Amino acid sequence: MSAPLLAVRDLATHFFARNAVLKAVDGVSFTLDAGEILGLVGESGSGKSVTGYSLLGLIDPPGRIVAGSVKLQGRELVGLPTAELRALRGRRLAMVFQDPMTTLNPVLTIAAQIRLAIAAHERVSARAGRARAAEVLTRVGIPDAARRLDAYPHQFSGGMRQRVAIAVALLNRPDVIIADEPTTALDVSIQAQILTEMKALVSELGTALIWISHDLAVVSALASRILVMYAGRIVEQGPTASVLRAPRHPYTSGLLDSLPARAEPGAMLRQIPGLPPTLAALPPGCAFQPRCPRADSLCGMAPQVTLTGVRGWRCHHPLDGGPP
């Protein structure tokens, strides 16, 4: 069996406040194979985005990676000098952020921004760089790409700006792309187009993709495997179809029950009671216990990960998931 493209082991990223330590990522482990699409889901504040930033070494003070390992094809990334990490970003590891207006420079043309992304890793002529830029914009579905290179970000719609951001991430054919909720602000039709294009591009280029989202419907249409996060930890993992069809963790079940599609017409939407815990004061044992309908005294102790075949969960009282 070949080694995974990306191997994350016991990753911990903490933020140090004056009177507390916030464990935003607390012992996260997973692997990613070449060409695989992995979904990372959970409520806001569950640690999804911080996990993505940690993989790229984009954690600013007062946060820092305090433990764990991130290996890309066997090369340890945690602790690499800043210059070496910068050389990897965009070339081996790339990220697509949620809001392209905060990542695209409003005073530079699209051509200029793509040229800078190319120049960060290799030397090419202006003509070759422009041709490459037009090619990658065409690949992500931007019509008349050669002419649109001279436009500015504000001259594109939200969906087209996000396509540009995806094009920049694809520019150097990275091994791994981390997409941090890139379709959240887009309408459903544009979202569906981008999901279809991303799936096709991953298949064509062999790039691995980590898709971070709170939207289980989006992840179910895209990812082959899913990780569910809560309070900085992975509480359930497995093949997407298996996890969504028969969740084992009550939190995963609660997320699914909250989907509007599961509500009867005219009925109130269901929701998980309560709020996610503050990271400065996590409850003892299972962090989900204050909101869990199955919690009892045993949940005051931290549950260990249970692995059964390709499924895994962290719960003292898992649901009966049936066949995997």
From TrEMBL:
This is ABC transporter ATP-binding protein. GO terms for molecular function: ATP binding; ATP hydrolysis activity. GO terms for cellular component: plasma membrane. Keywords: ATP-binding, Cell membrane, Membrane, Nucleotide-binding, Transport. It comes from the Bacteria. It is found in: Cell inner membrane. PANTHER family: DIPEPTIDE TRANSPORT ATP-BINDING PROTEIN DPPD, OLIGOPEPTIDE TRANSPORT ATP-BINDING PROTEIN APPD. Residues 6-256 form the ABC transporter domain. Its main location: membrane. It is a peripheral membrane protein. Belongs to the ABC transporter superfamily. InterPro entries: AAA+_ATPase, ABC_Ni/Peptide_Import, ABC_transporter-like_ATP-bd, ABC_transporter-like_CS, Oligopep_ABC_C, P-loop_NTPase. PROSITE patterns: ABC_TRANSPORTER_1, ABC_TRANSPORTER_2. One of its GO terms (biological process) is transmembrane transport.
